[in-house]
Amino acid sequence: MEKQSKKxxxxxxxxxxxxxxxxxxxxxxxxxxxxxxxxxxxGWQAYSYVTDALEPMDPDSEKxxxxxxxxxxxxxxxxxxxEENEVIKDARIYKYYVxxxxxxxxxxxxxxxxxxxxxxxITESLKTGKVYHEPLYTINVPEGLTxxxxxxxxxxxKTDYSAEQFMEQVQDETYIEELMxxxxxxxxxxxxxxxxxFALEGYLFPATYPIYEENPSLTVLIEQMLDxxxxxxxxxxxVLQEQEKSPHWLLTxxxxxxxxxxxxxxxxxxxxxxxxxxxxxxxxxxxxxxxYAMGEHKDRLFNxxxxxxxxxxxxxxxxxxxxxxxxxxxxxxxxxxxxxQTDYLYFLADSEGKNYFSTSYEQHLQYRDEHxxx
Length: 374
Fold this sequence. Notes:
Helix content is about 50%, strand content about 5%. It is mainly α. It has 4 domains: about 1-55; about 65-130, 2-Layer Sandwich (Dna Ligase, domain 1), CATH 3.30.1490; about 135-235, no CATH class; about 235-370, no CATH class. The chain has a two-stranded antiparallel ribbon with strand order 1-2. A two-stranded antiparallel sheet has the order 3-4. Pfam families: YceG. Functions as a peptidoglycan terminase that cleaves nascent peptidoglycan strands endolytically to terminate their elongation. One of its GO terms (molecular function) is lytic endotransglycosylase activity.
């Protein structure tokens, strides 16, 4: 009986241990299942978060966000900057994306980005210095237009603003002061000269501009054009400094070439004529300055017009006018800094736009009689 009792006790203990093992196994299984569920949920959430972070902030957004990437910025600072400006959803995810794509060498500069841009488009923009997304429409500013012509032919026709609203904006003294602070190397005290008709005349670069907003403000449009002028002139800043010349001088000179130029004209040779005349203390005597001075379009000038007294007239004044008389394109700007070397002092163009250059007034008159007539 005693032995049987010991066996029973052992048997009971074995049964209890088996029960404990089953309970432990059940607990382990439950814990494992819970952990798997947790891991799956966390993994799904992480996957969803990463997938969502790789998508545009707002695919339907048209608002342009100005982002300035300073010189010397690294990937960490650029990613943080993009997240801070709400262009991307997560800076860390963007950094992983860039590293996975093996991208590098981003360019400093000012970018007009939107929340509808993909990470690929943003990255391409930062690499090339250009914005890669489709504009809603474009605005074309032809070469050789004055501010008033830009107001009438571009702004009034292509936007919801009137020519009067545009001209009021570009003549607002407070706004001009703000622009001078924003563009200190471009808009200098020269534009405040008392003889200047319009401070921003000649400073709105002629080009085709992509528009990413349905109705951008006038200041956005104006500063987009100023940015283009700044970008065009920046490569020549060192040359201007060596020659002790200013961007205002460059744009003024270039505007004369732009207005004198025809489809077949040689801007570099015309530039040489102007240089030669100034070297000999001769007035430039270019008709477009008289037309600008008079403030009205004329197909032909009469003798009395050449006597019109105004600081812009290069018939009654020697040297360049106080400021630009129109918006000059890149080819005219380049011609000022790289003129042909000639002895020409005169030139004229026939009805087909062909130029005739001469070194003497007698030869000039002969060309006039032959190709222009009375």
